[in-house]
Amino acid sequence: MSDIDLQSGKINLEGEWCSVEDLKSKIQEKMDAGDMKFSNLATALEELNAALENSHTIETKIVIPTADYEKLKELGGEDDDLECVRQAVLAFLGSDVRGAPAPAKAAEPEEKKKKALRCAKCKAMIEIPAGEVPAEIKCPECGTTGRLKAQKGEARHQDHFLG
Questions:
Q1: Sequence-separated (6 or more) residues with CB below 8 Å from residue 91
Q2: I need a labelling partner for 35 at 20 to 30 A (CA). Which of 5, 74, 77, 103 fits?
Q3: Which pTM does this prediction carry?
């Protein structure tokens, strides 16, 4: 598989980033010159077209607290906000940065898994270690406290805790 930049709609062919139009022009130039050796260009064009047909553009505006923004940048590893979000979404989906499925990861030890709830007041995420059902939870962002309802030794799955 070639290196494809879905954001710009280009493929890296022999060190040069080419769009669909660039590839079509190069093929046409070779044909006009009587040079029928353009299989590498046709293969790249086919690969780029397939990648573009199998992609979906998501346009969104996200407003997040500064602390979460810093976490996002750590996950994305780039200075470009768009690239950070793209890499974070792909990591969340279990794909590598090209969009291909990432290799299966070893299961995390049970003590490191966490559950997350949203604060009823500010909607910030509150992580709770799996297997623990604290009597009271405090939101790290706004300080709101609340109680979880327990069910058979586990926290009931819910989007908000009671404030």
A1: 75, 102
A2: 5
A3: 0.48
